[in-house]
Amino acid sequence: MDMNTIEAVVPTTDPAEWRAGDAWLAGGTVLFSYGSYAFGPEPLRRLLDLGAAGWTPATVTEDGIELAATCTVAQLYSLPDSPAAAGRPWPGLDLVRPCCDSFVASFKVWNTSTVGGNLCTSLPAGPMISLCAGLDGTATILGQGGASRTVAVAEFVTGDAQNCLSPGELLRSIHLPASALSSRVAFRRLSLSNLGRSGVLLIGRLDGGTSLVLTVTAATKRPVQLRFEAVPGADRLAAALDDAIPADVYHDDIHGLPDWRRDMTYRLAEEIRAELTAPAGAAGLQVSGDFWPPAGRDALSKGA
Q: How far apart, in whole angstroms, are the C-alpha atoms of residue 155 and residue 70?
C-alpha cells in the first residue's frame, strides 16, 4: 500500500470538505492497492473517510431497495435472506448473489469492499455495476453547496475506469426500483479462467412478462442496455447488438480480446433470450455462464 503522501484522514460525508488532492475513502480495497498516484501525476494528500457515515446499508420498502454507497458486498449478499426482503415477490433478488460471487474475492474483501466503491472504480468487470444497471438502478450523487442529482447507473459509467462524477462529488446511494425487482431475470457470466475476472456478464429482465431488457457489461467498456417491447427473435436480437455496440466499445485486456468478448456476448444474449422465452423453470436450457441458476449453486453448497 503505497500511500506515503497522505497528510490527513478526515471523517466527513460533506462534499464541501473536498479539495484538490483529496479522495473519498469507503472500503479502500482498490484505493489502497492503487496508491497515492492512482488518479494522476499529483499525489493524494488527504482521504475523506466515509467509515463513520452511519448510513443504513440497505433499506427495503414497497418502492424497492435503497443501497447506501457504503453497503459492503457481505451485507448485500445477506440481503435476500433478510427479514425485510425475504418473501417479497421480487425475482430480481436472485441476481444479488451471482453478482456478488462474480467478485471471486476472499471474505476479507467482501467485508470491506463497498457497492459504491465498485461503481466509482468503474472497471468494466465491476459486478455491482452489472447488478445495479441490470435492475435499472438510479444513483444519487451529492455535490457542494447541498447540490444533489440522480443518474441511471447504466449511464453512470462512461468508459474503462471513467464515470460521470465531477471532482468532489460523492455517490450517496443507489435505488433499485420494485418494478425491476419484480421482473423475471436471467444471468450469464464467462471468464477465460476458473475463478477469473469476468470477461462477459449479461443480465436479462422480462418486464411485465413481455418486454425484454438486456444489459451487457464486462465485455464492454461501459454498460450497454437494449430494450424491446417484446422478446425478439434470434436474428433481431443479433442485429440489435450490432447496432448498439460498436467494435471499439468492446473491452480489450488480458481477461479477453474484443473478438472473443463480442462472440460470447452474442452467445450469452441468445441463451438469455431462450431462457426468458421458455416457460419459467423449464428444464434442458443451455447455460454457459457460471453461478446460475442460483438454486443449483445453493444445492451444491449444501452437498446435494
A: 20
- CA 215 to CA 231: how far, in whole Å? 14
Question: Position of cell 425475482?
Answer: 91
Residue 210 backbone dihedrals phi, psi, to 5 degrees: -135, -40
**How far is the C-alpha of 157 from the C-alpha of 128, rounded, in Å?**
12
Residue 259 amino acid letter: D
Sign (positive or negative) of CA dihedral 281, 287, 290, 296: positive
Asked if 221 and 165 count as a contact pair (C-beta separation under 8 A), the reply is no
292: buried, middle or exposed (CB in 10 Å: 19+, 13-18, 0-12)? buried
Mark out the alpha helices in 144-257 (DSSP H runs): 153-156, 178-181, 234-244
d(CA 179, CA 273): 20
C-alpha span between 4 and 24 (Å, rounded)? 17
φ, ψ (nearest 5 deg) of residue 208: 60, 15
Torsion angle in degrees (nearest 10) through CA of 224, 29, 10, 7: -120
22-60: per-residue pLDDT in tens? 999 999 988 888 888 877 788 999 999 998 899 999 999
Q: What is the pLDDT of residue 284?
A: 67
